Amino acid sequence: MRVAVIQFPGSNADWDALHAARDVAKADARYVFHKESELGETDAVIVPGGFSFGDYLRPGAIAGYSPIVPALKRFAERGGPILGICNGFQILAEIGLLPGALTRNAHLRFECRDVHLRVEGRGPFTDTLAEGSVIRVPIAHADGRFHCDAETLETLEKNGRIAFRYCHPDGRLPESPTERGTDGLPINPNGSIADIAGIYDERGNVLGMMPHPERASESILGSADGLGLFESLGAHLRKGAA
Amino acid sequence: MSAPIGLPNDPPADEALAIEFGLEPEEYAHALEVLGRTPTYAELGVISVMWSEHCSYKSSRVHLARLPTEGPQVVQGPGENAGAVDIGDGFCAVFKMESHNHPSFIEPYQGAATGVGGILRDVFTMGARPIANLNSLRFGRPNHPRTRELVHGVVAGIGGYGNCIGVPTVGGEVQFDASYDGNILVNAFTVGIAKSDGLFFGTASGLGNAVMYVGARTGRDGIHGATMASASFEGETEQKLPTVQVGDPFMEKLLLECCLEIFSKDCLEGIQDMGAAGLTSSSVEMAARAGNGIELDLDAIPRRTKALTPYEMLLSESQERMLLVAKEGREQEVIDACVKWDLEVAIVGRVTDTGRFVCKATPGHDPLDDTPTAKDPQVVVDLPIPLLADEAPKYDRPQKQPDPRTLATGRMTAVGTTEHITDDPGKMLVQIMGSPNVGSRRWIYRQYDHVVRDGTVVGPGEGDAAVIRAFCEDGEKTIEKFLAIAVDCNGRHVLLDPFHGAAMAVAECARNLVCVGAKPLGTTDCLNFGNPEKPETMWRFARAIDGLAAACSALDVPVVSGNVSLYNETDGKPILPTPSVALVGLLESPEHRLTMAFREEGDVIAHLGKLGEGQLGGSELLMQLHGHVSGEAQQIDLAAERKLQDAMRALAKAQLLRSAHDLSEGGLGGALAESCITGAIGATVKLPDGLTPADARLFGEEPSRIVVSFEPDARAEVERICTEHGVPFTGLGVVGGDRLTVDGVLEVPVAELAEAHRTALDEIVGAD
User: Which CATH number goes with the domain that contains A69?
Assistant: First the structure.
């Protein structure tokens, strides 16, 4: 599979995405600079984490004006799989490929630690992960609190577009937004509505998530659970090609 | 050449102004004598920052010369922007630690953030890609009115910068002591990776070559920052706010990527970041290293503020700026990279052979004016480079051993008694684990992105040191290297005996590296002391240098870079002497890595090294009992330390161990508790009989000791390796259950220890 990793000025998990896709998942992965206006030949796109344009104005806001964005939108409309991670999720929300907004974490601080995610919604990045299974991946963000209006939330729930929710290690969802685990830390790390960690778009090919699967794709990093998303993408592309 | 001109509005440059700028009257007289005339206002600014303690190391240079700086592994020693050690396959680890103490006390967020930004630039200036950050922090007593605000600000500032630029902050250390109430310490460390034959240096070589300015525009921030950092605080610090710089990590990220791209084109003669004393020190130091001169056209300096004077441009410490010297005819390649990354770039001068620092500017000309006046550059600065660099003042200041009676002492351990010295050792262990100096740093490191770049193999809170996977890119091939890094210093032990305390800092840091399975390679230091004009401070400084030198030699970890921060005192009250050291080591294989957590029920727990004898000097226990540093100084046997570390490395390489943890604050009791807490499992141990009370032996902080655990089957081989290295081995007990039991001394549920440990910072930072 061919994967394009978009590099905005201030992207800093671009290497993480390239490494996981290329060196671990064995994809043909390369960078595409934000000043390009075409993605080139590719099967999937990763919009990586970081602080594009320094998070100035609002995380992800300025990246929406980069020359590459129209190509990204066309790729999404054609059904191309796009994975936005962390700042990538923020950018996809800002340019309207995903609904809702990522606001400041409930405790107002940057938060970096491992979290557990319950796999729910089906799509190119989650199809081969068992529904209801739990993966452990890190988060690293200050603005990861997903929010949307009641109507949008209902649509997301109803259409199975919630890809991941923050959960206990055994898969239980927290009973309240402030419920803590045995380590004393909140299960929902940022106060996201309905414990949402990642969502698909209406078409089902664009996934945005705050946690970093590309930083948990090798056992040497403490968890290889995130590799499942790349394997799922590979299976999805093979199915499409067949 | 005629004498340089001043500007119409310049204040008169005289002795009074020189003193205001931080010079001594004799230093000003020396400048007059060498110049043979009165300097201009801008020149006096230049001289005073270059001769500041911060830039000239005038009180420390004579002592720093005693540090060992050579070894087969040293690729670059002190004197450049950062040092470097060989890590094999043609690659090196480039690293340095630097202080940003004074700015962080005045404005904690920006002070700490720009400290991180500065050290990152020092490392990537060398041609290295930064792969990890550490920091060493000191704050005042937990209940001091400013401590909470300072901790919040400094931590947010370090995170704000490092998280944005995308370099993981993977470890560090924090201590609280009343001596830092009015003078906190923020020491920032960065390590990067470069090809050993592809390092870049701060040299302005090649006559006529273009001097180029890349990065943020110049403003009025940070003017005289280096001078501020070279003075003690007295009373209000608010008025010093304009001397603190403001950081923009996004700009630095662009600068980093742009510089790495420029390096790959090999179109530079030299490069240096504009750190302390900004444009002045970068130009002067680059010219000095090459034995050349430099001529700057100040009209060409990119600026963000109108009506900047030469004085302001030369002394501004605006952040995220680099000075480059391009190879002949290669300027356009530099410009192209800057255009790609949307960075300001300008040719601002030329390399000359005059040996002089010459600056020209057109009086009244401002490129930001709607219709700038015509340029007619006049010489405004013309100073000999050596006067500002190698021939800057150097002092061997008087020393005096402090009266030992000035150290308050507390209850000593009575040899021969077997009575516990604490009322309830179990309760004391919980209290120690919950002390801000020993407890979990989770609240802090959760605010640092410690996983960016897919390299964090042993992260914060897991082991004695961080282990980082470095991707060394060699053409199409990528080689993975595993580095261990740690930072250490316990100022209490340095106060009691500067020689042994400083040696113990190096020894502990190196021990931390071997405890995660690495071979220590090199050292960087950050020497934080009080006012060097006080003979007692100077004595401590000199003794500490000797201690560092002895330990670095004994453990074969030469000093390759470093920084000195003096005048760390407020209203005449100095900080604990704090010679922080950070070491870099290499793991031969990631399979050798170890963490501190006890893992499996039934594993054997053993103590490596000479058992403690209940020497409590400088311990956390005495701090808990008396509330101040007390007791007799600890002594370190460096030969025994070396043997212990060699044995530990052999054990890690043989992959015989399940855990390893060095004994430091809280002694054996603290180490056992941490291995239990991180492993979420209990342990049952029995201390061998001794001549002093068991709880004193449990909490004493004698150096050169490690607690390990391993499968019962491995015991004979572990003992054999220890014996082979001449290291005492003592079986202590077994892993298992949910309580930590020390036979006849204490029995505490691990959950209770964990709770105390986890909430140790709550009283300072607020409940989570």
Answer: 3.40.50.880
